[in-house]
Design a protein that fits this description.
Layout (H helix, E strand, L loop, with lengths): L3 E5 L9 E6 L6 E2 L4 E6 L4 E5 L4 E6 L6 E2 L4 E6 L8 H6 L11 H4 L24 E8 L3 H12 L4 E5 L6 H6 L1 H20 L13 H25 L3 E4 L1 E6 L2 E6 L2 E12 L3 E3 L12 E2 L1 H5 L7 E5 L3 H13 L2 E5 L11 H14 L2 E3 L2 E9 L2 E8 L6 E3 L1 E4 L3 E3 L32 E3 L10 H15 L13 E3 L4 E6 L2 H6 L4 E7 L4 H5 L6 E7 L5 E8 L2 H13 L4 H6 L9 H11 L12
Parallel strand pairs: 9-10, 9-14, 10-11, 14-25, 16-23, 17-18, 17-23, 18-19
Antiparallel strand pairs: 1-8, 2-4, 2-7, 3-6, 4-5, 6-8, 12-13, 13-14, 15-24, 20-21, 21-22, 26-27, 27-30, 28-29, 29-30
Helix pairs in contact: 3-10, 5-6, 5-8
Bound molecules: flavin-adenine dinucleotide (FAD).
The site of flavin-adenine dinucleotide has 36 residues, from helix 3, strand 10, helix 4, helix 5 and strand 12.
Amino acid sequence: MPTMIELKVPDIGDFSGVPVIEVLVKIGDKVEKDQSLVTLESAKATMEVPASAAGVVRELRVKEGDNVSQGSVIAVVETDASVEAKPETTQAATKKTEPEKKPAASAEKPAAPEQKKTAPSSAKDSGRKPDFECQVCVLGSGPGGYTAAFRAADLDLDTLLIERYERLGGVCLNVGCIPSKALLHAADLINDAELMASHGIVFGKPKIELDKLRAFKDGVVAKLTGGLAAMAKQRKVRGVRGVGTFVSPHEIEIETSEGKKLVRFEKCIIAAGSQAVKLPGLPWGDPRVMDSTDALMLGEIPKKLLVIGGGIIGLEMACVYDALGSEVTVVELFDQLMPGTDPDLVRPLQQRIAKRYAGIYLKTKVASAKAQKNGIEVTFEGENAPKPQLFDRVLCAVGRTPNGNKIAADKAGVTVTERGFIPADKQLRTNVPHLFAIGDIVGPPMLAHKATHEAKVAAEVCAGHKSAFDARVIPSVAYTDPEVAWVGVTEREAKDKKLDVGVAKFPWAASGRALGMDRGEGFTKLIFDKQTQRVIGGGIVGVHAGDLISEIALAIEMGAEAADIGLTIHPHPTLSESIGMAAEIFEGTITDLYLPRKT
Ligand SMILES: Cc1cc2nc3c(=O)[nH]c(=O)nc-3n(C[C@H](O)[C@H](O)[C@H](O)COP(=O)(O)OP(=O)(O)OC[C@H]3O[C@@H](n4cnc5c(N)ncnc54)[C@H](O)[C@@H]3O)c2cc1C
């Protein structure tokens, strides 16, 4: 006989009349015990209410916007095992999710499938006398290129590094990770000082000396890039400045300030990276229209800034300019900021910035942008399009495109996809066995730490080692405020692939450390394979999430089970404790929260 059970809001601490911001199930859904039913949002935190029993939802007693308290009925489920469930949930219960050893590039968000191109036929050797000869030639000195060159040199290979710019370090050190984080640190300080005003420490409105801030950022970059130049010298890596293009499978021609130079190499590692996508139709000649490199120059603090693209780079720069005093508007084509990320992870960020920014418009695109005397006049299109507006500056941050089509790779016989990626295997070999490709040019995720790990493998393979890139996962971080970090399988991916997973979330509203920072809006989420109890994914939103995520990455790499994480003694009181506590939630051993007893 089927039984009807009411699923109620459990004891949620000192909260009552908490609004429901999202209903996560619908009538007819089969829910598992502990599956989230609704998301509640209090002034301090968002929390999901789990089902206290499994069954098929027959009635929903709440809708978005309702206020609930302990004991409010959320749904009524029919618990007879014979009730007809949705086919995917039946399958979900039987599917195993043994973590596979697979290249991390595919473990993360894969690139959209592209038409396979046939390999071009390479050009003949030029027959010219080379200006340089080397065992390994590395094209591009970003985190991929310099790491590959240094590792190759450390393995006693005579190495030459080609870079078109004066400074080594590529996008990451010069116009990416490092300068953006220096500015985000300044933004954090401003925000922290502002937050403390409500707790009795009032610093007042910050005075921003833009020239000094820019000099600080430039100083950080100079220190690091200078360090690279010194290390290249110590390792006897020869550097040539100029733009390199292939002439044949063993030759690259470099356009230098002293004319064309020819390099002949035994092996080459292509690390030519990527560049910002410039949305067509924007008045790019106008200095008020910026890409991320321009935005990092800190030319001025615009009164009104439009950020086109709600991805990581756009939101990080929005964070900087918001803290510096700009009125920020963000438009994003998709229905979510940081598309592809689990929506619950993005929510605390969105809630914070929604209160600070002039507008966040999802499912919206820029229809036109015209340079006027007094600003850039922008019109929008889409479901939530705002009225045309004038902005003092516009930042276009809609993604990055690989440089594969700019190095005459065809002359070397190297396959390049239409989008400009150069496919490589686990040893980072292209279709031409003595030519390797690493970093952004190989494919997503376009992240510096992926590039450096690939670089070491490529260099080691050049030296005859049996190395391969077989990382299980690659973490991603948005250094926004709060930070958002995730690694491995996401909840969304688990659902799409019908993986049999258990999800445990520790709300930072229960973390003494987070509350002591008045930043209890975050949470730590672990995703476990129910069969093996192994952690296969995780996400953290909150301050310092980017520093915390490594523990989850290590746990996944080591095949750690929930008990391994829960029984690891984390120091108290720390934010890292939240990882141990999330594992305890999965284990049912948590004492820092009250969870209804499992029967
Ligand atoms: C604003 C911003 C913030 C970012 N923040 C982060 C972050 O926090 N964390 C993170 O992991 N990633 C971040 N990234 C991404 C990161 O910078 C890249 O993933 C990383 O730099 C890729 O390294 P790479 O070695 O593949 O290529 P690149 O860094 O792009 O380096 C390629 C190098 O090759 C040179 N080159 C290209 N073609 C030629 C040629 N024909 N001849 C000579 N030289 C050539 C280029 O000048 C460049 O120096 C950020 C990017 C941006 C734009």
